[in-house]
Design a protein that fits this description.
Elements: H1 2-7, H2 22-35, H3 44-73, H4 75-83, H5 93-110, H6 118-145, H7 161-164, H8 169-179, H9 186-216, H10 226-229, H11 232-253, H12 257-294, H13 307-324, H14 327-357
Length: 363
């Protein structure tokens, strides 16, 4: 009887959770936070960033294989997850992981830890990630619109993932051009600006919808705690994207515009950082209350949604602190990096434990 049950038990590939690539996304995001040098008087931050980038590079193909196998062998199950208003958005972690891993590799090359030909690998990762983000985002939201009624509990910050990933493109492009000056052209600038429009502006359209759900419906349960924190990702990654786009546009325009646009981008990015900071305090209070009420926040694959937003906001804080030459922001960036590493380490330990026990593969 038991052997028959085991024989007919679903395989891990058939029930593979679409959020698993969040492990790579979060790892690469914290790596980038370390590689932008939040502790300028030390080298440990870049060493930690390089180590985490290596972990992301190793995990990327390992975790990508089950996605590919499932899409081929269990197409109906994969399609059902993509059409699910709660799970489908998590497929956005796949192209996001490609883009952020590429960003980490590009930054490693910029600081001289990797050869300049790394730009070709980064460009390939960006191309696949960009096309994948557009395709998955359109597929997911087309399915959501086609439903007669979307449950309130399915409308969470996870919906930002398929679109916000696009704001990472300018941050990658600006490093590609730095590594390969011969690639400098207005085509890159057009791609960067269009990606910001498709990512950040769509976030501004979607944010009121998700905020309305938080105000008018019961709060998300404790196992969706990370969806509160995900709001920091559009702020952090969006601010970095706006900065990169403004700087590239200023260089391309020349003249007085070369000075005005970067400063305008800096001011706007700082405003976005303010939004992220306010939300971090607000979400932190909500999460503290939720944790006390439920006896702690349960771990599952979606808990990796705490890692990338923390890394993205840290990277933006470091960049703003350096550009404004503001000691307060510089200290905040250093503290943010330490917090990001602690968050990553805790999630990594919980993941290893859950994998060993098999709980990580539960749906």
């Amino acid at each position: 009887m038991s052997s028959g049950t085991a024989e007919h038990a679903p395989s891990r590939v058939s029930t593979w959770h679409p959020g698993w690539m969040g492990v790579v996304l979060g790892t690469a995001g914290v790596a980038v936070a370390g590689l932008v040098d939040p502790l300028p008087s030390l080298r440990i931050d870049e060493a930690v960033g390089a180590a985490l980038a290596l972990v992301a590079v190793v995990l990327l193909p390992v975790l990508l294989v089950p996605y590919l196998r499932r899409s081929l062998r269990h197409r109906d199950a994969a399609g059902a997850d993509l059409a699910h208003p709660g799970l489908g958005a998590l497929y956005g972690t796949v192209p996001a992981a490609l883009l952020v891993t590429g960003l980490a590799l590009a930054q490693l090359a910029v600081i001289g830890w990797l050869p300049t030909w790394t730009a070709w690998l980064v460009a390939a990762l960006m191309a696949v990630g960009l096309v994948g983000a557009v395709a998955l985002g359109i597929a997911f939201f087309s399915g959501v619109i086609g439903k007669e009624q979307v449950p309130a509990e399915a409308m969470t910050g996870a919906w930002f993932i398929p679109i916000v990933v696009l704001v990472l493109v300018p941050s990658v492009v600006v490093r590609l051009v730095a590594l390969e000056p011969a690639w400098r052209s207005t085509s890159w600038l057009v791609l960067a600006a269009a990606s910001v429009g498709a990512g950040f502006l769509l976030f501004l359209l979607l944010a009121p919808v998700i905020a309305s759900r938080l105000v008018t419906a019961p709060p998300p349960p404790s196992h969706q705690a990370a969806t509160w924190w995900i709001w920091l990702a559009p702020a952090g990654a969006g601010g970095l994207g706006l900065l990169a786009t403004a700087r590239m546009t200023g260089v391309a325009a020349g003249g007085a515009t070369a000075e005005v646009l970067p400063w305008a981008g800096l001011v706007v990015a700082t405003g976005v950082w303010g939004l992220g900071t306010w939300w971090a305090v607000f979400a932190g209070r909500v999460l503290a209350t939720t944790s006390r009420a439920s006896g702690g926040l349960p771990f599952h694959v979606g808990s990796w949604g705490f890692a990338f937003p923390t890394g993205a906001m840290t990277a933006l804080t470091v960049e703003l602190g350096r550009t404004w030459d503001a000691p307060v922001l510089q200290v905040a960036g250093a503290v943010g990096f330490v917090v990001a590493v602690v968050v990553w380490a805790r999630l990594a330990a919980q993941t290893v434990g859950a994998v060993r026990s098999g709980k990580a593969f539960a749906r």
